[in-house]
């Protein structure tokens, strides 16, 4: 009986650890590969997480953006975001607007096959790779 209890506890511990996103993996620069279901994006879209300072920055198509973030119990929340204010061509404006709007909806993240998934609950909003 004692072995069974120990085995069940170990399985529960392993399962709970597997389901929590690894915050350490979040550190560094990622290249955006899809926004919502749009994967036809410029190659220079980035998002960078500084996990020590809890800061986020990146390039959203025309302007640089910056802000803060917090990680809580598998959740991810972005604070107030700011950006530079360059004039952009039509396509870049559309992509930038979509990216910043999607970031404002993010509340969790996961990693799948070395891809960072920024999500609103279970819906993947943005995919990025190092």
Cα radius of gyration in angstroms: 17 Å
Secondary-structure content class: alpha+beta
Oligomer: single chain
SSE succession? HEEEEEEHEEE
How many DSSP helices? 2
General description of the model:
By secondary structure, this protein is of the alpha+beta class. It is 26% helix and 39% strand. The chain contains 2 helices and 9 strands, in the order H-E-E-E-E-E-E-H-E-E-E. Strands 1, 2, 3, 4, 5, 6, 7, 8 and 9 form a 9-stranded antiparallel β-sheet that branches. A hairpin with a 4-residue loop joins strand 2 (46-50) and strand 3. The relative contact order is 0.17. Residues 4-20 have low confidence and may be disordered.
Write the layout of secondary structure elements.
Layout: H1 2-19, E1 28-35, E2 46-50, E3 55-59, E4 64-72, E5 75-78, E6 82-83, H2 90-105, E7 108-112, E8 115-120, E9 123-129
Antiparallel strand pairs: 1-2, 1-9, 2-3, 3-4, 4-5, 4-6, 7-8, 8-9
Entry summary:
The protein is α+β, with helices and mostly antiparallel strands. It has 2 helices and 9 strands.
What characteristics describe this protein?
globular, 39% strand, 9 strands, alpha+beta, 130 residues, nine-stranded antiparallel sheet, single chain
